[in-house]
Every structure is written in structure tokens, then in C-alpha cells.
Amino acid sequence: MGRAVTVAACALNQWALDFEGNLERIVRSIDIARSRGARYRLGPELEICGYGCSDHYYESDTLLHSFQVLEKLLESPATQDIICDVGMPVLHRNVRYNCRVIFLNKKILLIRPKIALANAGNYRELRWFTPWSRARHVEEYFLPRIIQEVTGQETVPFGDAVLATKDTCLGAEMCEELWTPNSPHIDMGLDGVEIFTNSSGSHHVLRKAHTRVDLVNSATAKNGGIYMFANQKGCDGDRLYYDGCAMISMNGETVAQGSQFSLDDVEVLVATLDLEDVRSYRAEISSRNLAASKVNPYPRVKVNFALSCPDDVAVPTCMPIQWRYHSPEEEISLGPACWLWDYLRRSKQAGFLLPLSGGIDSSATACIVYSMCHQVCLAVKSGNADVLADARRIVHDETYVPEDPREFCKRVFTTCYMASENSSQDTCNRAKLLAEQIGSYHINLNIDVAVKAVVGIFSTVTGRTPRFSVYGGSSRESLALQNVQARIRMVLAYLFAQLTLWARGMPGGLLVLGSANVDESLRGYLTKYDCSSADINPIGGISKTDLKNFIQYCIENFQLTALRSIMSAPPTAELEPLVDGQVAQTDEADMGMTYAELSIYGKLRKIAKAGPYSMFCKLINMWKEICTPREVASKVKHFFRMYSVNRHKMTTLTPSYHAENYSPDDNRFDLRPFLYNTTWSWQFRCIDKQVNAL
């Protein structure tokens, strides 16, 4: 009898509402799966329309076009003699569901709606979909006429069921269902399901991969079975980067691993596995078998098809492998770089412009662009025709082949050092040297004329001339003068982004990159509408600590020696006058807290859900060796005052790559008021009472 089954899990770079492109990538993945002997093909969640459609899910057009794509898939010769499992929204009895549509040879076998919806952090599935709440229940779904004409079916099963083929039994999970305490695979496994499928829209967060891998492997460690995990990859239209990591696991061990970061739009992971290994694994787990004898059975949809061949004794099967994880520094180098590439090619712009200050943040951003160029050259070298076509379109040269990252960087990346009378020669030299080493087209300019003109208008109107604190001015005057410099840099960045290529006789425009890190955003240590205001920001979700480690990684792996002096220099905005030609202003002194402290505050505020009092209670234990309770209270109060005073800046924060779970992104991840009572009188009184008691 057949025992070796060959299955395929896909990672596809789908794009919200790009029905034509999504269809092409799905068909290509099915072609690859079939060519490698797979009899079951699993794709990512909502792959037909793209996961990130958001409020477009409300539109009937999204449903219509999804069914039109499904019609093309059913008719395609590529989908014959392979069970295809695709994701799309489906309206059933006027209720919208997030569904898997499973079909074989122009016949729909089952429409399986999602049972547990993702509704935390960046996810809002309950806004658009309803969870299927009738466990082990199946109804008739009346197909649209365009589908009836292809399949010859009027109705198909819709609900919580499993597929019974000639040789095995398969059950579907969808993304969040793997993360819930009572995942469907538990009861499905007890009911004899041997192959579990999971179609996901799971995004990248630093240090998250091991959690996902552990969940997949643990799904079959106690219960036995084969687990297939397919995922979206790339930027499908917003702040998230979906990081692929397609994988196939059996009996608690990984047998096939897909890439986490790559520029391949289509990746198909194929594994051949022995069903008898599942059966023998389960046979000796008596506690599992006792529970199985009492389980409530699932409805089974019979499928006249086998995933194995009758004579397959000599077919080689996959063996367990060790998962290879990226370091956080590698993740920063690769994830945002792939996200930038997707954004660049899909926005149809000609490159990026970055205000390069010579500090850690803008230098880290420049290194990520250089890493992107490096990835493009590697992809072209490995024969990726899609990347080559995109690169040629971006540089407007149909014969161009990107081979050297520095040369490609020169074509697509412009850096600009915007000096003022408060800038030091050191930062100017650092920016210039780094630009030379990565190959960017570098511009040096001075903003003093523009600053004096703007301040001059104010002086003409009011008859008053503001001064910096060191020259006897008030803190209000000094802050206003700093903000003028910062905002003029933003205006100039956009002017040069629009016209630099025009001035060089080249077509197209540039996207402006921001470079404010997650800690500065949390504290509000930035000028509203300064150079942190940009088109996109690849480091806006990354902490200062991680960026420093990433800079060290770039020194070692890209041989960017210019970064050494950048690493050793204290972070500074260079907006206040120099003292004896040297920088007197530093970021941490300005903020009244260190970046390391900021990172802790951010994690406690967001991840630990701590308000001022809870944060104080946690920190008096965490910092008991270095701070008295009164000092801790002072630090916590200062943080919450500054955080609440500056929270309004988050409403205009540049769209940033989401990499940290304590991101203060106000758009959809960290939903808070932006007008606070900044005295926190009740909360701070509770802290003071506790300090006095201690």
C-alpha cells in the first residue's frame, strides 16, 4: 500500500489587491510543486486577494475578483492531479469568512472557514471577518454561477471538516489557530488526522522565529503527525514584512525549512514523508490513544485521490534537520532590506534619498540600503529573473545587470549631509567616508542661509530675535531655533528627492528615508515634521541597542570601517551651538535617560502592560542594586511625563518597518490617546505613597 506522501508548502510574495500578480505567483507555485512530485499544495493565508487588504474586505469587488481568480485557477492545466489549497474571503449567508478553498481536478472539495481570528497587535481580523463558531459542523455553500459553470457543482461543503483521501486524512488550521491554547490540530490528531496544514499571514518580529518553529514542532510532538506551514512573504502594502519560513515537520522534528528572508517571489518547499512513521509514533503513546477513543469525530469529506503511489517502497523520504536561525543582527540586515526592495519596486520610484548625519541611526539606515543592494546582486547572480527585471526598470536601462553592490548603490541611493553652523567637521567626515564605502551618490550642503531667512521673517514680523540658551536665550527660544533647523532639513530632503535625478539628467524621483529609532519615538525625542518625517523608515521599529549591534555586524561582514568612528561617537542631534568647535549637546543628556533605560520602559509599557505605578513596582526590584526607590520613582515619572507630552508626535510618525513588540506606532499597533493629562496626579501619588512606605 502507499505510504510515502509528497507535499508542498509555499511562501509567496503576494500584494494586496494585485489579483493578476497574485494569480501568476499562485500558478507558478503549483507548477513548481507538481514538477517536484507533490500531490498536495498549500499556500499562504488569503493569498488570492493578498492578506493586507484591510477595509477593502468590506467591498464586494474584493469578493468578486477573488472568485474570478479562483475560476482561473480551477480552469488552469497546472491545477490538475494535485490537491490545491488556496486562501480567499468568502461570503456565506451574508457573513464574511476568512477561508481555505480546497479543490482537485475542477471540483471544490471543501471550503474551510477560519475558527480563531487574529485580533491583537497589528491584526484586526475581527473587524472584517467572523469566526466560524460551529465546531465539527458542515453546511451547504451555494457557489457563484461563474464557479458552477467550471465545476458543475451547485453546492459544496462549508465548515469545520477534514479530508479523507484513499491513503490518509488531512485537516486544516489557519495562522492564529496554531497559537491558541486549544488548537484544532489537537482534536483532529486524536480523530486520526495525519497531515495538518497551516496557511499563515505571520509577520516578522526580531527574535520571533524560534517561537513559530517551536509551536509547529510541538503540534506533532505529543500527538504525532505531519505539519505543513505556509506563509506570506514580503511587503504586501504596509508596515509589516511577512518573513516566509515555510516549513514541514513530522513527529515533533523539522524535516524541511524554507528561507526567512529572500527576494524570491515564489518559494516552494517540498518533502516526501512516510505515513507509517506517523502511525508507529502514535501507536506507543497510550495516553494519546486513550484520549482518541473518546474524541468527538470530525465530518469527513471523501476524496477519490491518493497522495502516495501504490509502489513506493523505494521512494526516499526526508530526514529531520536542525533549524538554522538568524542572529538579530542578521535579521536587521535582511528583513528591512527585503522590505525596502519590495517598496521600491512596487512604488515604481527610482531609488532612495537619506539625510545622512554621520550618527548611528542614519548610518544604520544607509547600511540597510547597502544590504538591499547586496541582496539584489546575489539574487541576480543566482538567476532570479524577476529581480533583474525590476532592477532594470528602476534604473531605466534594459541591458543593465547589477553585479557590484557599490555600483548598484550609486544608481539607486542618494545620501545628503545637511550642515549648519552647529555641525562639527567630525560628523561631516564620517558621513562622507561611509557614503564612499557603500557607494552612494553623496551631496554636501549647508542650510544656514535657509535657517537665517526663516528666523529673519519671524524677527521682521515681531521685532524680536530668538537666541540659543548659551547666548542668554530662554529654553523656549533655544528649542524653537533647533526645530527650525530640523524642519528645514525635511523640506530640503523632499526637494532634493524630487529634483536630484532631474538635475543629473536622469528620469524618476526618490523616496525619502527616515531614521528615527523606536526608543526615540517612544520618548518623543524628535522634532515633529523634521527628517524623521519621510516616506518610510526601515529602523523605526528597532531599538538603539540593536542598531549598535547591527553597526558592529556591518563592520565585520561588509568591511565598512567608517562605522568604527560612528560607533565610538556619542549620539547627538547637533542643533545647539558648538563649544570651542566641539559638540556640547548629547542625546542622552537631552532626554534625561539612557537608551538602555528607554528600551526597558518601552517593553514594560507595551509588552508588560504597565502603567506608571506598575512600572515603578517592577523597576524597584529590577534596579534594586543600582537605584533607591526614590530614584526609580523619579525616573518613572520623568519617562511618563515626556512620553505623554510628546505622544501627539506618534500620530504623524513615518510608516516604519515593524520589528519590535514595544513599537509606539499610533496607526494601528499601539492605540492610545495623544492628549494626556501629563501630571498623572493620581498615578504619581500612588508611587509617592509607596516610596514613603519603603
From TrEMBL:
List, alphabetically, the InterPro entries matched: C-N_Hydrolase (IPR003010), C-N_Hydrolase_sf (IPR036526), Gln-dep_NAD_synthase (IPR014445), NAD/GMP_synthase (IPR022310), NAD_synthase (IPR003694), Rossmann-like_a/b/a_fold (IPR014729)
- According to the UniProt record, what class of enzyme is this? ligase
Q: Name one GO cellular component term.
A: cytosol
From what superkingdom does this record's organism come?
Eukaryota
Does ATP-binding show up as a keyword for this record?
yes
Key words of the record: ATP-binding, Ligase, NAD, Nucleotide-binding
**Pathway named in the protein's UniProt entry:** Cofactor biosynthesis; NAD(+) biosynthesis; NAD(+) from deamido-NAD(+) (L-Gln route): step 1/1
EC number(s) from the headed UniProt entry: 6.3.5.1
Molecular function terms from GO? ATP binding; glutaminase activity; NAD+ synthase (glutamine-hydrolyzing) activity
What GO terms in the biological process aspect are recorded for it? Answer: 'de novo' NAD+ biosynthetic process from L-tryptophan
Residue span, CN hydrolase domain = 5-275
Sorted alphabetically, which PANTHER family does this protein's record hold?
GLUTAMINE-DEPENDENT NAD(+) SYNTHETASE, NH 3 /GLUTAMINE-DEPENDENT NAD + SYNTHETASE
Assembly and partners are described as: Homohexamer.
Q: What's this protein's family per the entry? A: In the C-terminal section; belongs to the NAD synthetase family.
Q: Specify the protein name.
A: Glutamine-dependent NAD(+) synthetase
State the encoding gene.
Answer: Nadsyn1
